[in-house]
Design a protein that fits this description.
Blueprint (H helix, E strand, L loop, with lengths): L1 H13 L5 H19 L5 H20 L30 H11 L4
């Protein structure tokens, strides 16, 4: 995860002067992909850690944009970086398990 955060830090730095909504939408897509890949029950702590680190990196980049202006809470829209929704494992139904068994017993 450290190497991915390092790569993300470089990308955020390159996008430092892009409009905030554009960068926020990009970061939202990055985190959504991360949530979809690593979103299993019991992994919410590391997913929240990743979101917090990405938020921290983005806030640092936004602070470096200007020597005069201070970063306010409104400058970092939270709707771009949303908390993950816990993905639940859905068990197979009786019909689905029967069709899987039928396919696995099929001989070519």
């Amino acid at each position: 995860m450290v190497s991915k955060l390092t790569l993300l830090k470089v990308q955020i730095r390159k996008r430092m002067h892009a409009p905030v909504p554009v960068t926020g939408a990009w970061l939202g897509r990055v985190l959504q992909g991360h949530y979809q890949y690593y979103g299993v029950p019991g992994n919410s702590g590391s997913m929240a850690f990743c979101r917090d680190q990405v938020t921290r990196l983005w806030r640092q980049a936004l602070r470096r944009r200007s020597q005069k202006a201070k970063l306010t809470g409104t400058a970092l829209p939270q709707h771009h970086i949303s908390p993950h929704s816990s993905l639940e494992m859905v068990p197979f139904s009786e019909e689905a398990s029967e069709s899987v068994a039928a396919v696995s017993s099929f001989e070519v």
